[in-house]
Amino acid sequence: MTASKQPSGELKKVVEKKIKPITALRLRRIIGLAFALFLLTVAVFLSLMIGAKPLSFDVVWNALFSTSDSYDYTIIHESRIPRTIVALAVGPAFGLAGAVIQALTRNPLADPGILGVNAGAAFAVALAVGVFSITSMSSYIWFALAGALIATIAIYIIGGGAGKKSPTPVQITLAGVAMAAALDGITTALSLVNSRAFAGMLNWRVGSLARKGLEDLWPIIPFLIVGILIALVIAPALNAIAYGDDRASSLGVNVKMIRIFGLISITLLAGGATAIAGPIVFLGLMVPHCVRWFIGPDQPWIFLYSLVIAPLILLLSDIIGRVVMSPGEIPVGIITGFVGAPILLILVRRRKASSL
After folding, report:
1. Cα distance between residue 296 and residue 38, in whole Å
2. What residues have CB less than 8 Å from 262, skipping those under 6 apart?
3. What totals of helices (H) and strands (E) does the chain contain, helices first?
4. pTM of the model
5. Domains in the chain, ordered, with CATH?
6. Which residues contact 11 (CB under 8 A, 6 or more apart)?
């Protein structure tokens, strides 16, 4: 009897050893996500309080739940609430688009900016404004989505995706950088040729949340929601793709369909966000990396964290841009560039980038 019980006891110990780390990691992820949501809430209130005219927490709180004709009430409701809500919409879009691109391409250095997706959307919007004189958000959102989609497909084909083998991460990155440089040059040329049409879009070209109204955001919200839902649905399958296409297929994953849906998600997220806020750089690169350093290479969790961390970083960057040159401000796209560039240098100096 003793001999028969001993193996079962050893088996129980082995199972307990395997279960405890998994439970501890899951608990850490849940606590971390709750803490990130708390920090995001704090950043939202800071965004409402800090600006050319600083406001106290009491003033902001009262303005949220009461009506008034005061100047402070007007500032909060006509300026700071709209730009904060825009940040809460486009931040998750850029962060999640970067996470999806990195998972699909198995390239830890990929993001909508480096791979030229943002540049494709920005070029299409510039074409709509400069050539067709389209200035309404509900109209040129379609140009932004088309530009993001065409740029993504072109980069994949140029990088070698038209052949029998899938393109390597290096090939896709080089193709994306080349595509982004070319499209940025054409966009700049369009703005110089028709400077009057682009006079009101100077901040948009570097990425900005200033002077964005909720009426500009509503046409884009459906596209962002669909893009987020698609990304969350395909997230578990992307864990299998991280081991390679052949291994994923052997596990029952339809790799081609996942890539198609991933492409649609990237187009909706990057194209929609770029249409309203401009091509904000590095956000889609640094957020998934920061998340993976903390929770590990698990795509569903990476996607959930990206939805929270990206708007947090975007709001904090926007706040910094308002403070450093008060009463003026620096567009948020420039601030994210200053923050993201050192992170990119750190990644380059690391012997091994965060595993996917």
Report:
1. 21
2. 100, 103, 104, 230, 231, 234, 238
3. 15, 0
4. 0.85
5. 90-349 (1.10.3470.10)
6. none
Hey, what are 112's tokens? Answer: 């909508």
- Give 224's contacts (C-beta < 8 A, 6+ positions apart): 89, 90, 92, 93, 268, 269, 272, 273
83 contacts 252 by C-beta, under 8 angstroms:
no
Asked if 271 and 285 touch (Cβ cutoff 8 Å), the reply is no
On whether the CB atoms of residues 314 and 282 are closer than 8 A, the answer is no
State the CB neighbour count (10 A cutoff) for residue 43.
Answer: 21
* Residue 334 to residue 318: CA distance in whole angstroms: 10
Buried b (16+ CB within 10 A) or exposed e, 170-197: ebbbebbbebbeebbeebeebbeeeeeb
Residues 263 and 271 sit within 8 Å (Cβ to Cβ): no
In angstroms, what CA-CA distances link 145 with 212, 250, 252? 19, 34, 31
CB 131 within 8 A of CB 316: no
CA distance 155 to 74: 45
Give yes or no for a contact between 94 and 115, defined as CB atoms under 8 angstroms apart.
Answer: no
pLDDT in tens, the chain (356 residues): 444 444 455 545 544 444 455 678 788 899 999 999 999 999 999 999 998 889 999 999 988 888 877 888 889 988 899 999 999 999 999 999 999 998 988 877 788 887 788 889 889 988 888 778 777 767 778 888 899 889 888 887 887 655 556 666 677 778 888 888 888 888 888 877 777 767 667 777 788 888 777 888 888 999 999 999 999 999 999 988 887 778 888 888 888 889 889 989 998 999 999 988 888 888 998 899 888 888 888 999 999 999 999 999 999 999 999 988 877 888 998 999 888 777 767 766 665 555 56
Tokens describing residue 120: 């494709």
The CB-side HSE value for 96 (13 A sphere, CA atoms) comes to 37
